[in-house]
Write a structure and sequence with these properties.
With 184 residues, this protein is of the alpha+beta class. It folds into two domains: 34 residues; 137 residues, 3-Layer(aba) Sandwich (Glutaredoxin), CATH 3.40.30.10. Helix content is 39%, strand content 15%. It is built from six helices and five strands. It has a five-stranded mixed sheet with strand order 2-1-3-5-4. Strand 1, helix 4 and strand 2 form a beta-alpha-beta unit. The radius of gyration is 21 Å and the shape is elongated. The termini are far apart. About 8% of the residues have low confidence.
């Protein structure tokens, strides 16, 4: 067999093996029912998928995917024209950078992505939704001087969402993250 024929056969086989190898590597933890690995705090080590999942600005929201990381999640809903949202934005940005790999902090612009906001009890902006690392709604363990709203299922009485309406100070946000299990 000449070299050209071998190359025509070998090249597609190598490409298929490469793709299968990448798929197996990425899905090995998920196939065992284990959470996907937490992200390192160095953003240069993130895969393209993790960069999207851990990006502050959300263009979509796959809660099953986000909870698979096993990290607490805070989703802030706001808009560019909102004064309190603009005041809270630098705090949210700073905490997002500091907590990368320890917590997932997302921002959803309700003007650009109203379909995401409709999935949550957002009636006022800014509103933050808090979700524990196991995917359950966060329920504060103590009084932190922050007024939370809880939404419960009328049949089961279980908490479905815990939210805060309005901006938070850095100290308040930090205290909530610690209460959610994030080590400083």
């Amino acid at each position: 067999m000449d070299k050209r024929k071998m190359l025509r056969i070998a090249a597609p086989v190598l490409i298929v093996l490469f793709i299968v190898g990448i798929w197996a590597f990425k899905n090995i933890g998920e196939s065992k029912g284990e959470p996907v690995r937490p992200v390192e705090s160095d953003s240069s080590t993130l895969t393209a998928e993790e960069e999207t999942d851990f990006a502050l600005d959300a263009q979509s929201m796959d809660m099953d995917k986000l909870t698979s990381y096993g990290l607490p999640i805070i989703v802030d809903f706001g808009a560019g024209w909102c004064g309190p949202c603009k005041e809270f934005a630098p705090i949210l940005d700073a905490m997002h950078e500091e907590m990368l790999g320890k917590a997932i902090i997302k921002y959803v612009d309700t003007d650009d992505y109203p379909e995401i906001a409709r999935e949550f009890p957002v009636t006022f902006i800014p509103t933050q939704v808090f979700i524990n690392s196991d995917g359950t709604p966060y329920v504060p363990s103590k009084d932190m001087g922050v007024e939370f709203k809880t939404y419960t299922d009328k049949v089961s009485g279980k908490t479905v969402f815990t939210v805060h309406e309005g901006g938070l100070t850095e100290d308040q946000l930090r205290a909530i993250l610690v209460d959610m299990g994030v080590s400083q």
